[in-house]
């Protein structure tokens, strides 16, 4: 099956996007959720470096391009309805822009969101900010 045939089986939404969950290979830890368009999926399959679609920037977002926190693709899986992807990745460094390993660092506890993980690196270090 060609990559075009693979891409044709993905049910992109009316904006041309599909949600994707990034999961750490080996541990199964859920790292983050993002979006891909057809071009991002194609690039990810071709390069084995995960590429997303940034809805805020309206452009391709190559994970780790500015932070160095690259995701290398191990497997890309399509769900049973064809409308969600699971990217099993080897994560270099942290996945979250807040400096945490995972974007899912808040837990609903007694009616409040409670932090369950501290940053492993500051945002300034992560993005080499020198304001």
TrEMBL record:
Zn(2+) binds at residues 80, 96, 103. Its cofactor is Zn(2+); Mg(2+). Pathway: Amino-acid biosynthesis; L-histidine biosynthesis; L-histidine from 5-phospho-alpha-D-ribose 1-diphosphate: step 3/9. It is found in: Cytoplasm. Binds 1 zinc ion per subunit. Signal peptide: none annotated. Pfam families: PRA-CH (PF01502). Catalyzes the hydrolysis of the adenine ring of phosphoribosyl-AMP. Homodimer. Belongs to the PRA-CH family. This is Phosphoribosyl-AMP cyclohydrolase.
């Amino acid at each position: 099956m060609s990559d075009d045939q693979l891409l044709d089986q993905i049910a992109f939404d009316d904006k041309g996007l599909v949600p994707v969950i990034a999961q750490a290979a080996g541990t199964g830890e859920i790292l983050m959720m993002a979006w891909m368009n057809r071009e991002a999926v194609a690039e990810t399959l071709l390069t084995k470096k995960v590429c997303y679609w940034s809805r805020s920037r309206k452009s391709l977002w190559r994970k780790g391009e500015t932070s160095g926190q690259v995701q290398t693709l191990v497997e890309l899986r399509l769900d049973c309805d064809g409308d969600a992807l699971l990217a099993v990745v080897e994560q270099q460094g942290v996945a979250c822009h807040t400096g945490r390993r995972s974007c899912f660092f808040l837990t609903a506890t007694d009616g409040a969101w409670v932090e369950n993980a501290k940053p492993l690196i500051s945002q300034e270090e992560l993005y080499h900010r020198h304001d």
